[in-house]
Design goal:
The chain is an alpha/beta fold. It has 15 helices and 24 strands. The chain has a 9-stranded mixed beta sheet with strand order 12-10-13-15-24-23-22-19-20. A 7-stranded parallel beta sheet has the order 3-2-4-1-5-6-7, sandwiched between helices. Strands 17-16-18-21 form a 4-stranded mixed beta sheet. The longest helix is centred in the last third of the chain and has 19 residues. The termini are far apart.
Length: about 475
Amino acid sequence: MVPRVVVAGLGGDSGKTLTSLSLLLLASKAGLRVTAFKKGPDYIDAAWLTWASGRPARNLDTWMMGPGAVIRSFWTHAESDSLNLIEGNRGLYDGFDARGSHSTAELAKLLGAPVLLVLNATKMTGTAAALVLGCQRLDSQVRIAGVILNQVANRRHESVLRDAIVSTCGVPVLGVIPRGREELLLPGRHLGLVTPEEHPEIDALQRNLLALTESRFDLKKIMEIARDVLPLKSPPAAPEDLPTGQGLKIGLIRDRAFTFYYPENIEAIERSGATIVTICSLSERHLPPDLDALCIGGGFPEVQGVAISSNAPFLASLRDAAEKGLAIYAECGGLMLLARAIHWNSQRHTMSGVLPFDVEVCASPQGHGYTTLTVDQINPFFPLGTELRGHEFHYSRILAGEEAPSTACAVRRGTGSFPGRDGVIINNVWAAYTHLHALATPEWAPGVLRAATDSRARRSLTE
């Protein structure tokens, strides 16, 4: 028996993350072990769930991974006698199409998990019951077991909302969040919330969340709902055929500017026997000299633009390594670090210059959603014909008028780096706006390991 619950909303910014973090912290304080999952490919919410649970939060995305891999991931990491919390994304029934394919509701059914529905009650009373009732009636297989009320003005507002929902829908109200607290506790910016690494009051946040919700959430009842589930069936084992990485050293640039990494990607490299070397682009002056490959994830290099551009020795070291043939795999923010410069807020921040173009950060998303790429050009990481399923969410773009260098992939769905293309290739560098998950793209880890092995062989010839 695996106690589990899905925290869903009626749309974005409903209060799902605030509710999820609070429940994880309350359960931990009560002595329960907690595990968190995030529906969809989002890095930032997953990072916050990791912070609150004290262990890596896993992304569950049926579009990228397929239902089998999602069930295997949940089965592998969920625990009995604990709170296994899955935070949804967007609205409960919002999915890939009008039918709600790959929605939070479909994930809840796949995992046999009851739903806590978070409702933003700003300037409404009885209409809240109509919204909950509509979610109940749309799909009777989705078990809406309780409601969390967000943005509640006062006790009278709460009382009317409770009466309307309980009498009309027959589900309990299990938590209340007062109006005007969310933005103060979890400030946002472009791409969503600030990351835990950049939160200005991270040391006080846990205390503030507990003070806000401890007397307002019915944790006992929520745990009763989470335990009232059917046993999970064991999924078939996934085949895994990783090449050996024994003796290889894979660098990972991970700091306040670059935080977007799926734990499964890192774990796949570690399972091969390779060593992960964590590198800080803000403080270290040079790359380690004996790296066999380098991975640069996404993040917010524009926010740390002054600090990165001031570290000229590190940027020169990165450029020199790329020119000497080091295998480098970069996604989104990593692409920006490899560019000549980042333009943001009327400032130009010099970057490494590995790629022959500048990027600019715009006021609105330049690419947002799932991506499908087909590898059609020779590159260090993926065989020709490989189909890559991933996602992109970036406010930056390559400056108009820049000449397109060689690219490895045709974009079948999404925006990419250049019209119809993604995966910029320079020497043994791969730089793309598409993010890849190791469970959705099983070719990812073998590709990094092969590129690292080739990079080591080239280095040994020159030594």
